[in-house]
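Below is how a single chain appears once it has passed through the pipeline. First comes the sequence as given, then the structure the pipeline wrote out for it. We keep one example in the README because the format questions we get most often are answered faster by looking than by reading.
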Amino acid sequence: MANGTIAFDTLTTSDSVKTGTEKSIDTSYIFNGVAKSWVGILNKSAVSNGDSLNVSSLTDPGTGRIQITYSNNMNNATYSVTLGEGGNYAYQGEVTSTSQAEHGSVNNGGSYTDSTDGSLTIHGDLA
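Resulting structure:
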């Protein structure tokens, strides 16, 4: 183990309370199934990050839009963006690059508008 790598196919917990399949997880799920980034945006007009994973910064490129920059880039720009919105607005997401995505809120007329809060989850492969 000169290079510091540990290889395994399944992780198993030592928790004696859990039994059967609850005690283990196939490592392919970690690489392929779990979210690689997520963020809960508390106040879009003030650009406030409630909690997050793999997010280095949030910026405000304009009314109703939040730019999310990842701590660790995605492998390509064809990953999946899932959004949620806390206000009474429609929302839209856009993959802008391997290092960023955008969360936007629009009103009934289709114009960008600030809302109370939102969320964004990313699935795909990390670089």
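The chain has a mean pLDDT of 79.

See the next section for the split statistics.
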